[in-house]
Amino acid sequence: MDFTTLALISFTSLLVYAYYRFVKKSLNVPPCPVRPLPVVGHLLTLKADQRPQFQQWRKECGDIFSIYLGSKLLVVINDFDLIKETFVKRADDFSDRPVMFIDEVSFQFDFKSQALEVSQPLATHPYWERTLTQVMHSTYCLMLNNKTGQSQSIKLGPIIIHQHFS
């Protein structure tokens, strides 16, 4: 087999892989604002401050859309009622989702005071604290249950929410 044939087969295989990885798989997920690039996904379209970009994509795609960070799919939910529906009412369906870096950074559980500390940017929704408290209690109880293997619910103390003003 000569080099040209091998290069053609490799290139065709890469195209088929990219097609099935990004096009066929994306039929079962929320819409993407722009077509993701193979291997890097939407990383090249994101800026240092993603908030304006996400607001623009929310206007284009609605309250739920998906982006690819590299080859990882990330579903973005922009509505508090949908967040509550997803993580409180249907928590069992979404409790086995992979832990992302931001989850590890944003949540700190103090076992001594039984308090969950959440670092959260200032939200503009008038009921964000109550909704966020319900979501975090439910999500963190499920995370603890999954990590410890316990089947009973865990009672948490207060949730301390830190606001960051920019």
From TrEMBL:
Keywords on record: Iron, Metal-binding
InterPro entries to which the protein is assigned, alphabetical: Cyt_P450, Cyt_P450_E_grp-I, Cyt_P450_sf, Cytochrome_P450_fam2
Pfam families named in the record: p450
GO molecular function ontology, one term from the record: iron ion binding
Similarity field: Belongs to the cytochrome P450 family.
Name assigned to this protein: Cytochrome P450
Organism: Biomphalaria glabrata
